[in-house]
Amino acid sequence: MALQGVILDIDGTLVLSNDIHAQAWVEAFAAFSYDIAFEQVRPLMGMGGDHVIPLLVPDLNDEDGDGKAIADRRKALILNELGQKIVSANGSRDLVLKLQAEELKLTIASSAKPEELDLLLKAAQVDDLLHEATTSADADESKPAPGIIEAALQKSKFDPNQVVMLGDTPYDIEAAGKAGVRMIAMRCGGFSDDELAGAIAIYNDPADLLQHYDQSPLAQ
């Protein structure tokens, strides 16, 4: 079936944010006297706080107690301080413009909180281009659960075989696979090719995909 749409992850795909999110988690845990190293957090980026918090401190969750306070602190750090350091991945705006020129319907599927999405879209320089989105608020669980991607499919009104997802983490690949969606991966999120092995293609960043667009799965 011909490609009709593209589902877009934002963090690590259109913006270089995974290190910054990891640092926000480290600082948020430290604010409540939990000693969590950057190296513990960084491999978990791509998941939402509902997964990150209990994986790092099994007695905590993001809904109450210290876990909720840590999640709120992390969000505040991104919105009010660290988020200002997030920059666009190379070629993000140009790639989105190309996808729109190809008349593909674009839908965001992000584990970010809704309040953070505007900041991320502005950092990616696509806030005037992308308007349809699903976030952590649209699913019971964040990635690697498929709910956010399933919500994006429902919103875009496409079958899984009519779309391709662009993402950057093994959790994007796992979530997309559970939703029946093929995924193109970006190395700019900081994961290795071995970790991204489930993708149908891997590119360095949006600019690299744009440069090879005619040979990519998007043009097939």
Automatic annotation (TrEMBL):
Highest taxon listed in the record's lineage: Bacteria
GO terms (BP aspect): DNA repair
Coiled-coil segments on the chain, per record: none
GO molecular function, one term: phosphoglycolate phosphatase activity
Record keywords: Hydrolase
UniProt GO cellular component terms: cytosol
Pfam families to which the protein is assigned, alphabetical: HAD_2
InterPro entries: HAD-like_hydrolase_sf (IPR050155), HAD-like_sf (IPR036412), HAD-SF_hydro_IA (IPR006439), HAD_2 (IPR041492), HAD_sf (IPR023214), PGP-like_dom2 (IPR023198)
Database matches in NCBIfam families: HAD-SF-IA-v1
Protein name, UniProt field: HAD family hydrolase
